[in-house]
Amino acid sequence: MRELNNTHTAEEQPRSGRKFFSTSFLWAIIVTAGVGVLLGTQIYNPDKRVIEAIVALILFLMLWSVSTINALWLFILIHPFPFAISLGNSSFVFSVIIFIIYIIRVSAHKDTFHLDRMVNLPILLLVIAYIVSLYNLNYSSAYIKRSAYEYTSNFFAAVLFFYLVVNFIDKEWKLKRTLHILIITVTLVIAFNILELLFPGRQIIPGWLYSKHQVGLVTKGLRMQGPFHDFELNAEFLALMAPIIFYILIRSKRLLTRSIYALLLVIDIFVMLTTVTRGAFFSLSAGLIYMTYISRKELNFVRLVTIATALIVIILSLEFVVSKYTISGSLFQRIVNTTFEKGLVPKNRASAWGGAIERGMEHPFIGHGPGWDFTKGLNVGLWPHNAYLFYFNIVGLFGLSAFLLLLYRLFKASLIGIHASLVQSSFSMGFMKIMHVVLIIFIVDQIKIDYLRNGIYSYSIWLLFGLLTATKNIITQQKLQRKQQAAAP
User: Fold this and answer.
1) Percent of the chain with pLDDT over 90
2) pLDDT value of position 234
3) 215, 344, 354, 442: least CB-packed within 10 angstroms?
């Protein structure tokens, strides 16, 4: 027995040795040593690109370890707050990495991917328009070449973001959770604006979260630019989010929750007024009037008058506070002082729109390419301040037609919710009615501003496009399920 035991022990000892020097252990030693050498060299002589590559690798591993929809929700949460990198900004990298991981999982049959027929054609035409327009790009200007790269890369990444939203928000519970995450994002944007209002020009995090202002531009006082560093787009974002906050408010059942959302809605409008931006105010007003009209069956005369009176009192009170007790200017004073040319065209838009039309006619079919020198604003280069003229200039009538086709199909899809009840209908159907109004606000506001000029803000717009498309698919799926249930014996 002792001999057998000794023999057994002797046989086990080499196995233990083989386990101790296993391949995985050797790989761990090599990786640890490599990481140590890399960190040591970067501490001694840091290289920005190497550090960015390390961060990207860590981010890739983190995203791979969690479900893709959680990564998408994280991106929705932080997308208005990117940091600059050599590739453009972190939103571009984040969107591409999530999409790559998603495609890998699709190829491994762990996920499925589908293209939405409603939007495939206009998006494909837009992609082709961007590529073809590069033929007319002014390659002699380094600034224009760089801006062309940034505009194009942001456009492609925003489209990937759009398809991630469409593929992953496929159930009503996912839509609800996504909207609650979006509300948190809006809250963070509002908080940034309030910090900017209290401490203008300060850096919250140097090189990342900071505010900047142009003193003495158009109005007295400072105009809050928010994390987008653009007061007009900041105002539009807050205007587009107002109906969504309102919808979450009226669908909430608890009084405390409703009170919190009501306060958030009031602060959202307050911050929008601090941007002193006419376009967003008029666009939101038009959207709210339109929403009241299509919801008239749910409102009796007394309720309508009560809501309208309360809204007017709130806006006038907020305007008084902004103009008298903050460093921002008065929106109503700016509206009163507005001068017009050629009918209803504001004076500071007439030269921009006229110049953009003249410039666009130089290459009317495929445009000048996505790059543009906006360093001189309205004086040289004639910044369009109009998204449709922006598309006409960079990708010509071909690209503009593709974008208009996209808007038309989104608008047509949103019509299925126009007769829905905001309170009584299903959550998806009621939200589609809200998205119909949001799309109207966007279409109207883009007459006076161009979302394309900002590499941060573009993702917010394509997120809204994705939410509208996803909601349409959820409603279609619900209708199909009801038909199957009705047909079942």
Assistant:
1) 42
2) 93
3) 344
The pLDDT of residue 336 is: 77
88 domain-assigned? yes
- Angle between the N-to-C axes of helices 142-168 and 90-107, in degrees from 0 to 180, rounded to the nearest 10: 40
What's the mean per-residue pLDDT of the chain? 82
In a domain, 428, yes or no: yes
Instruction: Categorize the per-residue pLDDT at 28 as very low, low, confident or very high, splitting at 50, 70 and 90.
Output: low
User: SS3 for 448?
Assistant: coil
Q: Which of 58, 88, 62 is CA-nearest to residue 74?
A: 62
91: which residues sit within 8 A by CB, 6+ positions away?
A: 75, 79, 82, 154, 157, 455, 456, 459
Cα gap 210→229, rounded to integer Å: 9
CB 319 within 8 A of CB 275: no
Residue numbers of the domain that contains 145: 66-487
Q: What is the DSSP letter of 222?
A: B
Q: How many CB atoms lie within 10 A of CB 31?
A: 10
**What whole-number distance in Å separates Cα of residue 5 and Cα of residue 7?**
5
Number of domains in the chain: 1
Q: For residue 85, report the phi and psi dihedrals to the nearest 5 degrees.
A: -135, 175
What's residue 325's pLDDT? 85
Q: Is the pLDDT of residue 23 over 90?
A: no
d(CA 182, CA 176): 10
> Is 55 within the bounds of a domain?
no
Kindly state the average pLDDT of the residues 364-392.
Answer: 76
- pLDDT bracket for residue 11 (50, 70, 90): very low
What is the crossing angle of helices 142-168 and 458-487, to 10°? Answer: 20
Using alpha carbons, list the distances in angstroms from residue 471 to 111, 121, 196, 348. 20, 19, 34, 38
Q: Are 88 and 154 in contact (CB under 8 A)?
A: yes
**343-353: pLDDT as tens digits:** 666 766 777 78
Specify whether the CB–CB gap between 69 and 168 falls below 8 A. Answer: yes
